[in-house]
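[Meeting: bench + compute handoff]

Bench side (C.D.) handed over the final construct sequence. Compute side (W.E.) agreed to return the predicted structure before the next meeting so the bench team could plan truncations. Sequence as handed over:
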Amino acid sequence: MSWVEHTSGQHWRVRYRRQDGSVASECGFTNQKAAYDRAHEVDVDRRRRTFHDHTRGRITVNEWLPRWWTTLDVDEVTLDNYQYLIDKHIIPRFGRTPLGELQSSDIKQWSTDLHTAGYEHSTVEGIVSLFSRILGDAVEDELLAANPVHRHHNRGRRAFRIHREMLWATPEEVLRGAQQAERLHNRASALLIITAA
């Protein structure tokens, strides 16, 4: 059951008990009705089992990482790689950001910035994929309602994809290949190459 408290002047907060017995607060309501509406919303979501405690997302990426490290079961080389990518790319950009404030658009912009800085597409994908794993584990710990790293298809990523050009043999190259197949194998192999071409 949630309740509303008047804090000062025109400020109210909504409070509720977490499953572990601790009390969480959502502040910043500038009128009593808004606070009561939010308290009612929290209670309804809890009954429906769709409630997400937004106050848990206040811990920063830096605070979450030590807890996340303890969950890993990978080899030393992978750990070293993760440590390098986290220290070099993730902490400088998002280390002080609370988990609950991470936005999908921020991560897309970060990915674009990495491409612009000259990193290969596969490198950027690896960095973003690692961050997605870190945040995915935060979702499992109920620190986030959803992972802000989304894989959107057909939304501008094509600019960073490597386009493989189809190579076609000229008629002369086909005939040379067929002649070589006939010399090395038999006439049927040469015929198959010409037919396929």
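W.E. noted at the follow-up: The first helix runs from residue 32 to 48. C.D. will use this when planning the next construct.
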